[in-house]
Amino acid sequence: MKFVDEAVVRVEAGDGGNGIISFRREKYIPRGGPDGGDGGDGGNVYLVASEDLNTLVDYRFTKHYAAERGKNGGTADCTGAKGADLILQVPVGTRITDLYSGEVIGDLNKPKERLCVARGGRHGFGNTHFKSATNQAPRQKTNGTKGESRQLKLEMLLVSDVGLVGLPNAGKSTFVRSVSAAKPKVADYPFTTLVPSLGVVRTTQGRSFVIEDIPGLIEGASEGAGLGHRFLKHLERCRVLVHLVDVFPVDNSDPVENALIIEKELKEYAHSLYEKPRYLVANKVDLGDEDEAQQILDKIASSLEVVPSKTFLISGLQKTGVNALLYALQEMVDTMKSAETENGKEKNADTFVWTEPLVEKKEDRVRDDDEEGPEFIYRA
User: What's 81's domain CATH number?
Assistant: First the structure.
């Protein structure tokens, strides 16, 4: 299936149904009074996060969606039926933005979360609504109001714990292959990886984290150069970054300068992304002397503005040092999740803000265990 992470759609909620003018007329009841019913409300448009979807490709072909209009009122005080709501499914991690105003309407980060993006029009009143002691035969009625109409930008942001960044050919895909059953394409030319991917690493029984690989970044990526700029947004929701550096580049470029290029692009794209905790990992140590690789790694670490939490020497191809990196990542992810849970409890206990909820809750290839290290479960 084609990977599509952006789409623009137009959604229209249903109009409210009109009220009607009607009078009761029966045998022996010549002046029965008004009995015109109200119309029904228009249907709303909802977006619902679904675990069964991993792309927005369907919204590239169908651009317009409309909920049902409310029915008009009827005689004998019959109220028109409410228009049916329209429910559109999107992948988990979808951010919804108003195309014209740029307002972020909401984020759907959890399965089955539901967000109302367009509200239906209110129903009109029939003439029964206007009767009074001084107006016993009203000939007034109102029409239903128009439903909301919006042009939406849908952006699917992958939800992960760990994000991999680095220049093209830094060895990110090789690293993924070395710890997973996945077989991403590996070649000796830039931009072998064209789309981001997610995987689940299970380190011990009951402990796991989600890792994300995006196409390699190049200088100017934050301004639109190369492919990586299209996918930098996917790193916004990860907890930890893994900066992968080729410690012995085949083009004889300076590993320190290469690392600074990535740091610069992260900073220029979004400061919040630049400040995320990270591990600095020197890859391809099997291509040279380990002591020399350690000296280069230390030099890179000392040149960075954001001090990495830890540094590692690995060989993705030979699997050297990979297990230690995965276990360290698991510890950091668990610690951050625990801190987030505690902060959420304290915030709920100490503060109370009355707001209309943005998100409405709807009410009513696993690989066998590897004795040598953690198990990596890949999910495309």
Answer: 2.70.210.12
